[in-house]
Description:
The protein is mainly α and 93 residues long. It is 34% helix and 0% strand.
Amino acid sequence: MWAIFPLQDLLALKDKYTTRPAPEETINDPTNPKHYWRFRVHVTLESLLNDKDIQATIKDLVTSSGRSFPGKKAEGADESGEKLSKVQLNGKA
């Protein structure tokens, strides 16, 4: 499975990266014919590489949703990769 996530959504997982005003986050303004598609990331790649907290958060979200590498099933998933309910996880099903 292939999972694509908009960078802005991933950066919004941490308050540290949500300090820009909303108009600066706008990629396209269809009401303005002279506006063009653009987005400038306000965070350096180096700072993201050093931020182990956001890396762990994203990894946990991808893994728990079953979108990690083939062969790795999500925690709380059955053999087919389908998520189990809390009742099934607790052995009461």
